[in-house]
Amino acid sequence: MLEGHESLRREIHGIRDELSEKIDNNSFKIDVLNKKIDSVAADLKATDEKLTQKIDAVATDLKEHRANTEAHSGVNQEMRGVSLIFLCSI
Fold first, then answer.
1. pLDDT at residue 49 above 60?
2. Residue 54 belongs to what H/E stretch?
3. Full-model pTM
4. Closest Cα to residue 24, out of 36, 12, 16, 34?
């Protein structure tokens, strides 16, 4: 009977060791994945910041271009008015 208990004890210890090894392996994999996720999140944040800066720069350029176009549009309209007045006086 002692041999049966000893055999059972060895089997339980063996299963416990295998399970412990699997848990350690899974813990390692989870740590690696967490580091990868953190790295990707940091890269994504940096990319988001760069895109935000680029979008802001384009918006500023567009605003300046629009103001410039509107300013020249007013000048062109005034010049057309002067031309019409000049033509009418001839």
1. yes
2. helix 2-89
3. 0.54
4. 16
